[in-house]
Design a protein that fits this description.
Oligomer: single chain
Structural class: mainly alpha
Number of strands: 0
Shape: rod-shaped
Strand content: under 5%
Helix content: over 70%
Order of helices and strands: HH
Number of helices: 2
Distance between the termini: 17 Å
């Protein structure tokens, strides 16, 4: 597992929590920040997935 996968998953979870908190407290700014962070986490995880796949391909 690549470190970007771990960091991306953590950002995704943190963003989901912020988004939910923003929705619960009727804070559109926090909800938007949560959505942004969640998206950034998914992208970072995707980069980690690609790096992991490339490393596996080079091993074979």
């Amino acid at each position: 597992m690549h470190k970007d996968q771990v960091k991306g998953t953590a950002k995704d979870v943190k963003g989901s929590m912020k988004e939910a908190a923003g929705r619960a407290t009727d804070d559109p700014e926090m909800e938007a920040k949560g959505k942004t962070e969640k998206t950034m986490g998914k992208v970072q995880k995707g980069v980690g997935d690609m790096k992991d796949a490339a490393r596996d391909a080079l091993k074979h």
